[in-house]
Design goal:
With 414 residues, the chain is mainly alpha-helical. Helix content is 49%, strand content 2%. A hairpin with a 7-residue loop joins β3 (271-272) and β4 (280-281).
Length: 414
């Protein structure tokens, strides 16, 4: 899905580098250079990924039946510009958006997916969708920023937003071209070894395409017209790369799934490496690959990477934060697994603990407080019992809060 499948901060970097930058699990979270706003999920500087991680967090909560805190939703809606677009982060929302503010398609599309799922934000999503349509490129795709060259990740996340908002991505066209046409140009032909079936992030300066697993996971969802949250497609045979069917969305998705399966077949995970660094597991992209494989119907091929994530992703998610927990939740959801028992971890509780307590939790806390007040009104003959009952309530509450805090962590995105 996501970056796209990296944090929005990394997505911004990819605009410069022209290639998706993988998330690195062992990188320590930077110390925030700005205060963390009330209502925002995560504890790291939101400058480059505030809207992205908030959108994924709220969408993941909604997907698992959790009702987010009102102030968390209000924070996201308050980030929108008057023209419908979202930037990665607006520190001062009392000031109107101007030309100096870099709005982007990824943040906007992620917000559309979240707000559509939450419901009750039709005006905001309509404006956002209209803005996205206004910045569609002539090849049918989208770049990270308006006017930027189309890339697979941005095109796919926007296609997912269009589908979530009730549009048909194949009918959202510019110059007669749709997102499918843009993604078709970024797909690698089956006879190109060993990258056949994969999607490239963007062509290089000479027009050549290089396989990119992150872009491939995004591309599979994009051609299928699916967003971050999806259920498994009709179970199919093991994916195969077939150039004769590459002219159809399902054929293109199957080719992409073939490449992803070939990359996780031996280890169960995708790999990433920065220049000069050793290869290491790429947890976020592996989660995205699970979603893409499931969406295409290759659930059998998605079981191994899902199992690997269940056993190995805990430390990464804790260090990376809300968007990481959301990616794992999306992977579990796509495969019909329980995100509340993901390798023994409750991803939902861990996500909830990275931001404002959801409404259901807040209500339970209020009820406990009311019980305490009633207890205080007991007569002196029951004073001893009342004191110990109250102490017990606070001990239980303390244990619960301790558990939530222990799950705190923060993410990625691009």
């Amino acid at each position: 899905m996501n970056i796209r499948r990296s944090a929005a901060a990394l997505a911004a970097v990819t605009v410069v580098l022209g290639a998706a930058v993988p998330a690195v699990a062992a990188t320590p979270s930077p110390t925030p250079s700005v205060a963390i706003p009330d209502g925002l999920y995560g504890t790291t500087d939101p400058t480059y990924d505030g809207v992205w991680r908030q959108s994924l967090a709220l969408l993941a909560q909604r997907t698992t039946g959790v009702t987010p805190a009102d102030r968390a939703v209000a924070w996201l809606t308050g980030q929108q510009c008057a023209n419908g677009a979202f930037a990665a982060y607006r520190a001062d929302t009392t000031k109107a958006c101007d030309a100096k503010l870099m709005v982007d398609t990824n943040s906007t599309a992620a917000a559309v997916q979240a707000l559509t799922a939450l419901g009750g934000h039709q005006a905001a999503t309509d404006k956002a969708v209209s803005w996205l349509k206004s910045v569609q490129n002539a090849d049918g795709g989208w770049g990270y920023t308006p006017g930027g060259a189309s890339d697979a990740n941005s095109t796919s996340v926007v296609a997912g937003a269009m589908a979530a908002a009730g549009e048909k991505p194949s009918e959202v066209r510019k110059g007669g071209k749709s997102s499918y046409d843009a993604l078709l140009k970024l797909s690698i032909k089956c006879d190109v070894e060993p990258d056949g079936g994969a999607f490239a992030y963007q062509p290089d300066k000479k027009g050549a395409l290089a396989a990119n697993a992150d872009a491939t996971a995004a591309g599979v969802l994009g051609v299928l017209g699916k967003g971050f949250v999806t259920t498994a497609g009709k179970t199919s045979a093991a994916p195969a790369c077939d150039s004769t069917t590459a002219g159809t969305p399902s054929g293109l998705a199957r080719n992409g799934a073939f490449f992803l399966e070939s990359q996780v077949r031996d280890t169960g995970y995708l790999k990433s490496a920065l220049p000069g660094a050793e290869e290491q597991p790429d947890y976020g992209n592996t989660a995205d690959a699970v979603v893409a494989l499931a969406a295409q119907g290759a659930t059998g091929q998605a079981k191994k990477p899902l199992a690997w994530l269940e056993q190995n992703s805990a430390a990464w998610a804790k260090q990376s934060g809300p968007a990481a927990y959301a990616q794992l939740i999306f992977a579990a959801h796509a495969m019909g697994a329980d995100p509340r028992d993901f390798g023994g971890a409750d991803l939902v509780a861990q996500l909830d603990a990275t931001g404002p307590a959801p409404q259901a939790t807040a209500k339970a806390t209020d009820q406990a407080a009311d019980a305490d007040k009633k207890d205080d009104k007991k007569d002196d003959s029951d004073a001893g019992y009342g004191v110990w009952w109250t102490v017990g309530v606070f001990l239980v509450a303390g244990i619960g809060i301790g558990f939530l805090i222990s799950g705190r962590g923060r993410k990625q995105q691009p």
